[in-house]
Predict the structure.
Amino acid sequence: MKNRKLIVILFSIAALLAFASLSLTFYLTGRIEWLRLVTFLFSAILAYIIYTRK
């Protein structure tokens, strides 16, 4: 992967935005929306996999 740092940064930003959205939704409604939770986990896991790959 040529642009590994850029991809990791983009997935990290996506994970942070999904986490902020999940937190805000939970704070306002008291419920966890599964799609936002899955999006957060997926983005974070992909960022970690790409970051640790050599």
